[in-house]
Design goal:
Pfam families: Meth_synt_2. Keywords: Lyase. Its EC number is 4.4.1.23. By secondary structure, the chain is of the alpha/beta class. The protein has one domain: TIM Barrel (Alpha-Beta Barrel), CATH 3.20.20.210. Helices cover 36% and strands 15% of the residues. It has a 7-stranded parallel beta sheet. A 3-stranded mixed beta sheet has the order 3-4-7. Strand 11, helix 9 and strand 12 form a beta-alpha-beta unit. The longest helix is centred in the N-terminal third of the chain and has 22 residues. The protein is globular and about 55 Å long. Bound molecules: zinc ion (ZN). The site of zinc ion has 6 residues, from loops.
Length: 344
């Protein structure tokens, strides 16, 4: 770990308004226009995160504008996205389209994260850690309807595993030293699936890069349209997930008012733990003193060298003005505790 009480992020960041408008009018733009748009959007996300003073930043996942640029746009073997089954009413996960699997699942061009990482390297200021995020195979399988010779979600996830594994190897070869393999679907569905099977799939996915980069995972309870989708308890995941081959495990705590905070004690005996200390679903802007108090609560369970702090999830579902203020107060609150403890 670079240093004690590190501040970091989970990959996504809100799109600037103009980028969101553009995503609804993609047909109006040429390939070079889109490339320029992406470059500008990443520069904005990088600046906001760097201004907040974070120890590690991401590209804000500003490239995922439409199907062609999403992870699914890189996969072969899919039919075009079916129409959403519910189009009106309050926003929810059931308004997100799924793609039917109709052939062999392949990604001959990779999943696009290497190009994203190189752009981030080019645009980020010196001295800040650069983090890349890749969805793990189980989470990636969540928006695919099993079909062809893949009878169920597990078969789809196992077919995606070597694709994600190759992507991780390419990222590390490109120089990425901080990679998060996001598996929120595992924390969402551990209550009804075998968590040991999740760990086996996870470890198979990361085996090729283990020890060659800082590996982390993000385990939350869902945040599409700022909605959760699962019983918000980590109990079903443990102790199985203590055997996950990661250097850092991230848990969502702020939106759950730090329920089960004691779970970080067991995690910190094996690996670093990144605590979600900012509620991305609430428009209450945490004060630096709120953050400092939360950090002190975590210190009752884990040594400072084992602790990192992040928002509960990516910030893409939080308005940008709030995301900026929340990151700034997170960094300031953590800084106050570093100062109290005379940490560098
Ligand atoms: Zn999340």
């Amino acid at each position: 770990m670079p240093h004690a009480l590190r501040t970091t992020v989970i990959g996504s960041y809100p799109f600037p308004a103009w980028l969101e408008f553009a995503t609804g009018h993609m047909e109006a733009f040429g390939v070079d226009d889109v490339a320029e748009m992406v470059e500008d959007a990443v520069a904005v996300a990088v600046k906001d995160q760097a201004d907040a003073g974070l120890d590690a930043i991401s590209d804000g996942e500003q490239t995922r504008l439409d199907f062609n640029l999403s992870f699914y746009g890189f996969l072969e073997g899919l039919a075009p996205e079916g129409a959403s089954r519910r189009r009106f009413g309050p926003p929810g996960h059931d308004q997100r389209g799924k793609h039917a699997v109709i052939g062999d699942l392949l990604a001959p061009r990779g999943l696009g994260t290497v190009e994203d990482f190189r752009r981030l390297q080019r645009l980020a200021p010196a001295g800040v850690g650069l983090k890349a995020s890749v969805p793990g195979p189980y989470t990636l399988s969540g928006r695919l309807v099993p079909g062809g010779h893949y009878p169920d979600r597990w078969a789809v996830a196992e077919a995606l595993m070597p694709i994600v594994r190759a992507e991780l190897e390419a990222l590390v070869a490109a120089g990425c030293r901080d990679v998060c393999v996001d598996e929120p679907s595992m924390s969402c569905y551990a209550h009804r699936e075998d968590p040991r099977r999740f760990v086996t799939l996870f470890n198979d996915t990361v085996e090729g890069v283990r020890g060659r980069t800082r590996l982390s995972t993000h385990l939350c309870f869902g945040n599409f349209k700022a909605r959760a989708v699962a019983p918000r308890s980590y109990a079903p995941l443990f102790p199985a997930f203590l055997d996950a081959h990661v250097d850092e495990l991230h848990v969502e705590m702020a939106s759950r008012e730090f329920a089960e905070l004691e779970v970080i004690e067991g995690i910190a005996e094996r690996m670093d733990v990144a605590v979600g200390i900012i509620d991305v679903k609430s428009y209450y802007i945490e004060t630096p003193e709120d953050v400092a108090a939360r950090v002190r609560r975590c210190l009752a369970f884990a040594r400072p060298e084992r602790l990192a702090f992040a928002p509960d999830c990516g910030l893409s579902q939080t308005a940008r003005w709030a995301a900026k203020r929340k990151l700034a107060t997170m960094v300031e609150g953590v800084r106050r505790v570093r100062e109290e403890l005379a940490l560098p």
